[in-house]
Amino acid sequence: MDLIPSEKQVTELLENTGALRHGHFLHPSGTHSDIYLQLPMAMRHYWESKALSVGLSRLLRADDEVRRHLPNVSIVAPATGGLPVAYGIAEALRAAQTYWAEKEDGKLAFRQFMESHKDERVILVDDILRTGRKLKELRGLVEAAGARVMALAVLVHQPFENAQEFPGIPLFKLVTLQPRYWQKDGCPLCADRVPLTSVRV
Questions:
Q1: Chain segment 152-187, per-residue pLDDT in tens
Q2: How much is the pLDDT for 1?
Q3: Residue 136 vs residues 80, 89, 102, 108, 132: alpha-carbon distances, Å
Q4: What is the CA angle 103-105-111, rounded to 5?
Q5: What are the structural domains of the chain?
């Protein structure tokens, strides 16, 4: 695999680990899709996890603004699901610290005594960007403390309709996936009687 893997290489890695599946899937929202992605299936394997995290870190390091402030940056994740990626990137960049937010009373918050600081340089990291809501909420949380968000970094960009935008902040990603979604009544896979698999998330 290349030092910065191509989208084809990333897609093949996700398929080979079972993280990316093709077929006919029913989501909790009731929508149907032709692919299903579960990134923890890839991140459970050491070498594959390492390849993805290091590849994403190299995209970040290639950015002049990010590189200029290394290693004095913080890697911050919006939830525990992004931690394997966050720690992998932090190790590769030798970042100063890594921390994360958690849901508390329906909102993202940092644990007691854990917080962002004025003028802290922050890279927001997650495994996947779909709606962007968690990353937007996390951005507000760190910026309210006076920290500066330098970049967003995700392994997979799988934007949903009306996904949040982040003007002025560069987005680094290894691959963009565009699954097709249908309601049951208009699903061509149902019409073709392709077996349906229910998925939890």
A1: 999 999 988 788 889 999 999 999 998 899 999 999
A2: 67
A3: 16, 20, 14, 10, 6
A4: 50
A5: 7-198 (3.40.50.2020)
